Amino acid sequence: MILFWVGVLALTTLLYVLLDGFDLGVGILFGFARSEKYRRRMLAAISPVWDGNETWLVLTATILFGAFPRIYATLLSAFYLPLIVMLCALILRGVAFEFRAKALYARWIWDIAFAGGSLVATFIQGVTIGALAAGLPIQDGHYAGGTWGWFSPFACLCGVGLCFGYALLGAGWLVAKGEGLLRERAYAALPGLTAGVFGFLAIAFVYALALNLRIMDRWLERPYLIVFPAIGAYAAFQLVRGIQFRDDLRPFRMTALIFGSAFATLAISFWPFMIPFAVTADEAAAPASSLGFMFWGAGLVVLPLTLGYTAVVYRVFRGKVGDAGHYE
């Protein structure tokens, strides 16, 4: 049961990063759109799926709460302030998405709210990842870092890097879904965003070595980890080729593969710790009776239904968005 719920947690987290990642990325790029016509087309490209994508964040939090309550409590204690800011940004973003369509004279306010909410939520998620990779101050299994114990230059660097990563995902999605000038503008953004992501990865790697982060020792302990960066390098090569040859589907798919390889690298580097290098999965898991009880509801009913619903929605809205803002 512990391994099952660890696997489900990894799945829901990765799906959230990929699915909500691209619509948060579109939100970041939305702030650079200069005309209402293209803003509408950008929103039309994500409108059928953006709110459903956030379901995976809810499922991830629910699994942590039910299956690994110690992790849930520790992370909430450590990241209480940034998580509140992130949730407020997501709420503001959702409100802006709906309100801007009805606004007559103050649409620019909701445009800023949508782009700003997307940017802030993404940055906070990156900071959280960076803080976990750098290591939280944990004593006797409890968080001991105070209000700002998660904050560090490395965590902020990861926040900036994730903004580039999500924007790259968003641009890939717009290429796959857009037509005409919207597609061309997304293609024009891809080289700069790709360079930004590669630059972040290089700087983060060197910075982690300079800080002598414990996670870097895993590369010596587990040399097979090189497989995942190799997959990421292959995906990066195919991403560049996709941009060069204007293959509309390849940029998004290869960016998703880069994210997947990075996620697998982190996950295996952390294992068996769920809070690196302080609390293991066995130590954090709920009693076996609780894990079994959750299996019959969340594991056999909620998760398959959510996966099925997501697959159906993406199947139905699989076409491109036309100039009129409708799916073809």
Can you describe what's shown?
By secondary structure, the protein is mostly helical. It has a single domain, classed as Formate dehydrogenase/DMSO reductase fold, CATH 1.20.1630. Helices cover 76% and strands 3% of the residues. It has 14 helices and four strands. Strands 1-2 form a two-stranded antiparallel sheet. Strands 3-4 form a two-stranded antiparallel ribbon. A hairpin with a 2-residue loop joins β1 and β2. The longest helix has 32 residues, at 180-211. The termini are far apart.
Mean pLDDT: 89
Number of strands: 4
Q: Under the CATH scheme, which architecture would be assigned?
A: Up-down Bundle
- Helix-residue proportion: over 70%
Dominant shape: globular
Q: What's the tally of helices?
A: 14
Output the helix-strand order: HHHHHHHEEHHHHHEEHH
Strand order of the largest sheet: 1-2
* Low-confidence spans: none
Structural class: mainly alpha
Biggest sheet features = 2 strands, antiparallel
Q: Supply the CATH class.
A: Mainly Alpha
Residue fraction in strands: under 5%
Domain module count: 1
Q: From the alpha-carbon coordinates, what is the Rg to the nearest angstrom?
A: 20 Å
End-to-end CA span: 44 Å
